[in-house]
Every structure is written in structure tokens, then in C-alpha cells.
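Posting this for the archive.
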Amino acid sequence: MINVDKFTRDFEAALEDVVPNSLSPLTRFREEIESWDSLAALSALAMLDSEYNVQITADEFLKCSTIQDVFELVNTRV
């Protein structure tokens, strides 16, 4: 099982212009990350594939509001 804190740090590291340790599992990434855009979404999806060998669809990703939501979805696939 993946650790949510490590997952959150990996999520942060995948994004440009995000201060390390500034996000939490409850961060509503689309609303709270000022630099969030389609490139950030692609970077997050690429991180899921490279770090966790998990692929999720754009529709599945769009249903996630928080980093915790993404974490829980990824945990169903590892």
C-alpha cells in the first residue's frame, strides 16, 4: 500500500511552481494550486504512470477533487 504523505510529496514534485511541503492530502488541487492548468494535469498523470505504474483516464482524474481522491483511486490499482 502507498503512503499518502509520500504520494502527496510525489504529486507536488510533478508540478512546477509548487513549494515543497505546501500541499496536503485534502488540497483541492484544481482550486488551490494557482499554476494548475492542463499541463499540470498531464504532469500529474505522467507521475502516476512513472512512479506507481498506474494509468487513469482523464474522466477518472476529473472526478477527483483532492489529492486524497487521486491517492484512493491509485491505491485501487497497485
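The chain has five helices and no strands. The CA atoms of residues 12 and 22 lie 8 Å apart.
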